């Protein structure tokens, strides 16, 4: 019976300290990795929002540029036509 008691004492019920440390370290690693993933996901989300905002701004500025080019062309045409009309008026008035 003495040998039987020794075997019982050697076999401890529950978790040993080294197993407990392994479990705690594993949980700590999982928490750290999850935190890093959440941080990176948030950074990607906010950067993509910023990129979308800038793309909208670029699109609006391109449209505004096209409108301004069109207005400049209209002004150039108007000035050329009015200059030729002014020259024609000056030339025809001096002939008579």
Automatic annotation (TrEMBL):
TM region positions: 20-40
Transmembrane helix keyword on record: yes
Keyword tags: Membrane, Transmembrane, Transmembrane helix
Entry protein name: Uncharacterized protein
Species: hydrothermal vent metagenome
């Amino acid at each position: 019976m003495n040998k039987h008691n020794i075997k019982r004492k050697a076999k401890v019920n529950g978790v040993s300290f080294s197993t407990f440390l392994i479990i705690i370290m594993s949980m700590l690693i999982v928490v750290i990795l999850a935190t890093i993933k959440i941080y990176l996901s948030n950074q990607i989300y906010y950067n993509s929002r910023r990129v979308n905002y800038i793309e909208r701004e670029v699109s609006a500025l391109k449209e505004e540029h096209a409108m301004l080019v069109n207005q400049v062309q209209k002004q150039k045409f108007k000035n050329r036509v009015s200059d030729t009309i002014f020259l024609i008026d000056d030339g025809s008035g001096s002939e008579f």
